[in-house]
Automatic annotation (TrEMBL):
Locations listed in the record: Membrane
Claim: Transmembrane helix is one of the keywords in the record: yes
Sequence segments annotated as region (Disordered): 1-20
Biased composition (Acidic residues): 1-10
Name of the protein in question: Metalloprotease
UniProtKB keywords: Membrane, Transmembrane, Transmembrane helix
Membrane topology: Single-pass membrane protein
Membrane spanning residue stretches: 20-41
GO cellular component: membrane
Species the sequence originates in: Chitinophaga niastensis
Superkingdom in the source lineage: Bacteria
InterPro entries found in the cross-reference section: Uncharacterised_pept_Zn_put
One Pfam family recorded for the sequence: Zn_peptidase
């Protein structure tokens, strides 16, 4: 994956000093890292935090922290990479929205360590990356990428880019009114039925990540051999069936909220193969297009 000539987005902030909770590895249902991946890509961080606290118990954090714009001068290699990926998504989605006669509002990316606050409540590293529609920000602790590689063998820069592009996909859904449509149905549905809608939402975000990769590759051939396989491996690693099997030893389809490994790979690949947002109806429509 080649991003050497890519500029870094101006919409990235680096937060520090927010404090670290006492969140360890081990115990619970196979360890917090299983919970991290099982809850990856959630849109409601408060619910995620409740699940984490049930496993680990309450922790503590201290300090309100500071925030500054991320620049090449103060960015680590992973932070710089993340800022470049965000800039790439900005370009592609501005282009796609123009074709729909719409204005693309760029999301912000908050890079933090340990914990911070978001428009959706507390943000913790243990949540994994997530998008908050209330403040239109993606929250990311880049140490997650190390966990993904070291503990689950998901390697390659494109697997990291896929994670960011998926969260930006949730932002696209938010702008198109898809997320609001799904959320409005929550009180009228059983947990089982709402989980089905959640799966559709997540699979569509995977599809949108694939659309981004397709369109960016058309612009500058930024993909290397093996990159798409890296993205597919990342999609597979966070399938509900694989995570449930790893965490509890059995699979409960009614509890799926993100889709199986096969489904996630299918929709990401469909987005990449077609590059056509109109092909991404996973069952919840395509919003205000």
């Amino acid at each position: 994956m080649r991003l050497d000539d890519e500029e870094m987005s101006e919409n990235v902030e680096k937060r520090s000093g927010g404090g670290m909770r006492n969140i360890g590895i081990g115990g619970g249902i196979g360890g917090i890292i299983i919970v991290v991946l099982a809850l990856l890509f959630k849109q409601d961080p408060q619910q995620v935090m409740q699940a984490v606290q049930q496993v680990q118990g309450p922790g503590s954090s201290s300090g309100s922290g500071t925030s500054q714009q991320l620049t090449k001068a103060n960015a680590s290699p992973l932070e710089l990479f993340s800022g470049k990926v965000l800039r790439s998504t900005e370009r592609i989605w501005q282009q796609e929205f123009q074709q729909m006669n719409k204005t693309y509002v760029k999301p912000h990316l908050a890079i933090f360590e340990g914990s911070t606050t978001s428009g959706c409540g507390a943000a913790e590293s243990a949540m994994g990356p997530f998008y908050c529609p209330a403040d239109q920000e993606v929250y990311l602790d880049v140490s997650f990428f190390n966990e993904l590689e070291q503990r689950f063998g998901v390697k390659g820069d494109f697997s990291k880019a896929y994670v960011i592009a998926h969260e930006v996909g949730h932002h696209v859904q938010n702008l198109l009114g898809i997320s609001q449509k799904v959320q409005s149905m929550r009180s009228r549905l059983s947990e089982k039925d709402y989980n089905k809608l959640s799966v559709m939402l997540e699979l569509q975000a995977d599809f949108l990540a694939g659309v981004w990769a397709n369109q960016q590759n058309k612009l500058n051939k930024f993909l290397d051999p093996g990159d798409i396989e890296s993205g597919l491996n990342a999609a597979s690693a966070v399938g509900d069936d694989k995570l449930q099997e790893a965490g509890t030893g059995h699979v409960v389809p009614d509890a799926f909220t993100h889709g199986t490994s096969a489904q996630r790979m299918f929709w990401f690949k469909k987005g990449f193969d077609t590059g056509d947002i109109s092909q991404g109806d996973t069952g919840i429509g395509l919003g205000n297009r």
